# Entry
Amino acid sequence: MKTRDETMMRLALEQAELAAAEGEVPIGAVVYRGDEVLSQCHNLREALSDPTAHAEILALRLAAAELGTWHMEDCGIAVTIEPCPMCAGALVNARMGELVYGAADPKMGCVDSLARLCDEPRFNHRLTIRRGVLAGECVGVLQRFFQARRGRQNTSMSDPGSRTAPE
# Structure
């Protein structure tokens, strides 16, 4: 189990790095069944101008299309950060079998941090959850992204001739 969790999380981290390279918040997700990867995606909110274009949502859509069904009881998803309320709800609605996540998200996480949507006993479905898989690497990609972004903001703000607006 640990080996598969780490393998899938490394693929999710690759997706997060792609997101960072595109200027997206670096979050990646991989949907799998057994050892078979069904879909991989990263955040595309900026590129698509879509507030729902989170890595998890996009990966779920691609996996459902691949499977020809939205029922994913025999599937898992690896995500670099604890899912937000929208994504946690989507995982429950997809009947996802298991969730593996890397970093906790104290600001938006609704698997453990702010709420426990994926194992809420009043819902008709609950997921198996494994937390903290490659957490240090998942935190690292986010920290590097936001440090670089803050560096660009400081540079553009300190240069009066700069035409780049702070992000």
The longest helix spans residues 135-158. Confidence is low (pLDDT under 50) at residues 156-167.
